[in-house]
Write a structure and sequence with these properties.
Blueprint: E1 6-10, H1 14-26, E2 30-34, H2 37-47, E3 51-55, H3 63-72, E4 79-84, H4 88-96, E5 101-105, H5 109-129, E6 137-140, E7 143-146, E8 151-154, E9 157-158, H6 163-174, H7 182-188, H8 200-213, E10 223-226, E11 230-233
Parallel strand pairs: 1-2, 1-3, 3-4, 4-5
Antiparallel strand pairs: 6-7, 7-8, 8-9, 10-11
Bound molecules: calcium ion (CA).
């Protein structure tokens, strides 16, 4: 690796920042810290970190706004939201605003580090594979997946997918008809190797993807649930 990767911690609880900084540095990352949302956003824009750990309840500007403004400015830096256990709504809203994943307080350091590594690796892999021009579009009839620019269209209209939704759709559509468990999707789309934690993030992402993709999200025609097994992609019939 040519340079140390840099993680921005945006969190107002000093003891959590201390724990995060200690463990990230032990793993060889550089760290930047912000204790409020305004500083967090400024550092995210000026310092171009490789990943952002973002608390939601912050002074001056909350984590949702930080995430939204960052994405509005076209930055695709991976964002891991740090949230309290009961705030299920918050996780969903965070993912809607373009966060890549969330981790629930209190979190295990091992799980956190696995997610940090997986998200940084995912971006590095995408950067390596993107200049290959072959097979730049996957034509599925009404639905077309354009590798270039990581976007998908339906009936010629852009679906406005997040990066994660695009990757999930591309993965399922490239293996049409094959059923994947939540666990498998966590490993292959989220890059969480040997993942044994919370897999509900998959359901949240599928739900959001269906809302953008399906004519009627309650009666999905593309992304189908196989009860007790997982999800699969079905081509236009
Ligand atoms: Ca807080």
């Amino acid at each position: 690796m040519d340079r140390k990767q840099k993680v921005l911690i945006v969190e107002d609880e000093k003891n959590i920042v201390d724990i995060l900084r200690f463990n990230l540095r032990k793993e060889g990352y550089d760290t930047l810290e912000a204790f409020d949302g305004v500083t967090g956003l400024r550092l995210a824009l000026e310092e171009s970190p490789d990943l952002i750990l973002l608390d939601l309840m912050l002074p001056e500007m909350n984590g949702f706004e930080v995430c939204k403004l960052l994405r509005d400015k076209g930055r695709s830096t991976p964002v891991l939201i740090i949230t309290a256990r009961e705030e299920e709504k918050d996780k969903i809203l965070g993912l809607d605003l373009g966060a890549d994943d969330y981790i629930t307080k209190p979190f295990s350091i091992r799980e956190l580090m696995a997610r940090v590594k997986a998200n940084i690796r995912r971006v590095a892999m995408a950067a390596q594979t993107s200049p290959q021009p072959q097979e730049e579009a996957l034509d599925l009839g009404r639905l077309v997946i354009h590798k270039e620019g990581a976007r998908a269209t339906k009936d010629g209209e852009n679906l406005e997918l997040t990066q994660r939704e695009f990757e999930l759709l591309t993965y399922l559509a490239s293996h049409a008809g094959r059923v994947f468990s939540r666990q498998e999707l966590m490993e292959r789309v989220w890059n969480y190797e040997g993942y044994v934690g919370d897999v509900r993030g998959v359901d949240v992402a599928i739900r959001r993807l269906r809302e953008k993709l399906e004519d009627d999200p309650a009666q999905p025609k593309y992304i189908i649930t196989r009860r007790g097994a997982g999800y699969y992609f079905q081509k236009d019939t």
